[in-house]
């Protein structure tokens, strides 16, 4: 668990340091993934953003709904004509509901890691659209010993404050 705290501290310090150097931005985003809704809140700059996100993975291994909630560092490339590529690295908790009160989670630096790549188009100073392909681990058995990998494709609208 100490690794998890260290990684969170590094992500936070990178984002706060970047905000001190550049003009900061804050945003709220909502959208849809291939299997359900996604929501996020972000703070940072045009390049470095610390984001809290929630992504529904849909039904995995048959009829078991899964959801990811976590903290990510989003690195945006320098925008060219209001478009930029992005990379996401984060960690969090994926919960799979197996029904009858049984659920399993994958948490932490080893099991709860999210990777993502995508692109973002900024329409104006307050609106942007983003699409991403993410890689997320989830629990594939009620005891949490088996895991699977989901690749949700997301499309989101961002309102920038």
From TrEMBL:
SUPFAM superfamilies: OMPA-like
Protein's recorded name: Outer membrane protein beta-barrel domain-containing protein
